[in-house]
Specification:
By secondary structure, this protein is α/β, with parallel strands linked by helices. Helix content is about 30%, strand content about 25%. The chain contains 10 helices and 14 strands. Helix 1 crosses helix 3 and helix 5 packs parallel to helix 6.
């Protein structure tokens, strides 16, 4: 077995802004595992919020002793981007070696197309209204908030897209007091769910204040070990493969979350179709799907995932799995 790692950058169609900052490109790490003349690929997105950089993730992957297998990977790498790339490459490699699709190897039903959110970057109210109007035909819009001046932005998006379902991502940007003040307005404007309103580690107040609409844990939920600490505070969990450390733990987290009574959202970092492909399997039957990363890129991988409007189709074997 041989492993190669490549750091790549994909330019975004437009600058993308959240409450923590802006970016104009997606910086990803691709891992390729080769054995017996067959190769499998996986992609991850290092995230500074979790102390990851392209260099640190590359070093983690390159430092692995070979051979590798999915069963022992969790003992060698912690949950995070590096393990995600390797785990997904191992799944892809196993599928190619067996002449089957990953969903068959995992004992899953054949995946079907699913509807994804489309994310609007944090901008001025005027620009967010214009972006909402351009995308008002989409079934679900996700809007980035998390600042002291969010109400004008939210009002602008609703005015621009009066019929779309809206979910809000505060990216840990609010206090309990701000959220309590905003919650009635979120309801009034028909917001269906709010994601991570308070900072992870400082979200205890969610168990003490009213939650008039579903609250989804993102930064507060990484893998199955996170679930006990979320009870009473959150109604949903956002599963991202870059947090769980790959498809293996993502599927296990999905099943455990549902068994514990949580709703399920499947999300992504801003990456290419190679990163989204395994997440499409996890997102089957999810309450909210947010796998729009490739829609934000100026250029994607070939072959890409097929998007028809806001509907994303399962990957072709030539892409992954």
């Amino acid at each position: 077995m041989r492993i190669t790692v490549a750091a790549e950058a994909f330019r975004l169609a437009e600058t993308f802004t959240i409450s923590r900052g802006s970016r104009s490109e997606a910086r990803v790490i691709a891992a390729t595992l080769t054995a017996g003349g067959v190769s499998g690929r996986g992609e991850c997105v290092p995230y500074a919020r979790y102390g990851e950089t392209p260099d640190s993730v590359t070093a983690q992957i390159e430092g692995l002793a070979l051979p590798l297998d999915r069963g022992g990977l969790a003992e060698r790498l912690p949950p995070g981007a590096a393990r995600n790339a390797v785990d997904c490459a191992l799944w892809d490699l196993a599928a190619k070696q067996a002449g089957l699709r990953v969903w068959q190897l995992a004992g899953l039903p054949e995946p079907r197309p699913i509807v994804t959110c489309f994310t609007l970057s944090l901008e001025t109210p005027e620009r967010m209204r214009a972006a909402a109007a351009r995308n008002a035909w989409r079934p679900v819009l996700k809007i980035k908030l998390g600042t002291p001046d969010d109400m004008p932005r939210l009002e602008a998006v609703r005015a621009g897209a009066p019929r779309a379902k809206i979910v809000v991502d505060a990216n840990e940007g609010w206090t309990a007091e701000v959220y309590a003040e905003l919650a009635p307005h979120l309801q009034r404007l028909g917001v269906a769910m709010v994601e991570q309103p308070l900072p992870a580690g400082a979200d205890g107040m969610l168990a003490e204040i009213a939650r008039p609409l579903p609250v989804c844990a993102d930064e507060s939920c990484h893998d199955r070990a996170s679930l006990p600490g979320l009870r009473g505070k959150y109604d949903m969990v956002n599963i991202k493969l870059d947090k769980t450390g790959g498809l293996t733990e993502a599927l296990a987290l999905r099943d455990a979350a549902r068994a514990a009574g949580f709703g399920v959202m499947v999300g992504c970092m801003v990456g290419t179709s190679l990163a989204m492909a395994p997440a499409v399997l996890v997102a089957q039957g999810a309450d909210v799907v947010d796998l729009d990363g490739p829609l934000l890129l100026a250029r994607d991988r070939e072959p890409p995932l097929r998007y028809e409007g806001s509907e994303v189709h399962p990957p072709e074997a030539a892409l992954w799995g």
